[in-house]
Specification:
alpha+beta; Arginase, Chain A; two-stranded parallel sheet
């Protein structure tokens, strides 16, 4: 059963729109139009390109780069929406170093900063 309070945006759908000629900016604007005034972000890090987080639970070919996601978050705030909270999930450490942890920390930092910017603008 679909929870009408939750909107999910899938990489496959977004990439197909890109291949059809739609810009990231146009897609971001369409995403924002579907959001309520108060937005909770649940960010699954395995939505990023797997080169950025190869040790996540379910790395999937394709994915976004962190700059694309940062742009999306910034535009959510610029639109006047209020970010009321967030979670970051699927961050997993690797055996060969702290690469995944570093990417996870950067994503977390982005979420904290954009949430604070949203809070200050309301």
């Amino acid at each position: 059963q679909k929870d009408n309070r939750i909107e999910t945006f899938y990489d496959w759908d977004i990439k197909n729109q890109t291949y059809a000629g739609k810009t990231w900016r146009e897609q971001v604007n369409e995403i924002i139009q579907q959001l309520p005034e108060n937005v909770y972000i649940s960010f699954d890090i395995d939505g990023l390109n797997p080169s950025l987080c190869p040790n996540t639970g379910t790395p999937v070919a394709g994915g976004f780069n962190l700059q694309e996601i940062s742009y999306l978050f910034a535009q959510v705030v610029a639109s006047g929406k209020k970010i009321i909270g967030f979670d970051l999930n699927e961050v997993a450490p690797g055996k060969e170093g702290d690469w995944d942890a570093n990417v996870g920390a950067r994503a977390l930092w982005e979420l904290v900063c954009i949430t604070e910017k949203s809070r200050r603008s309301h």
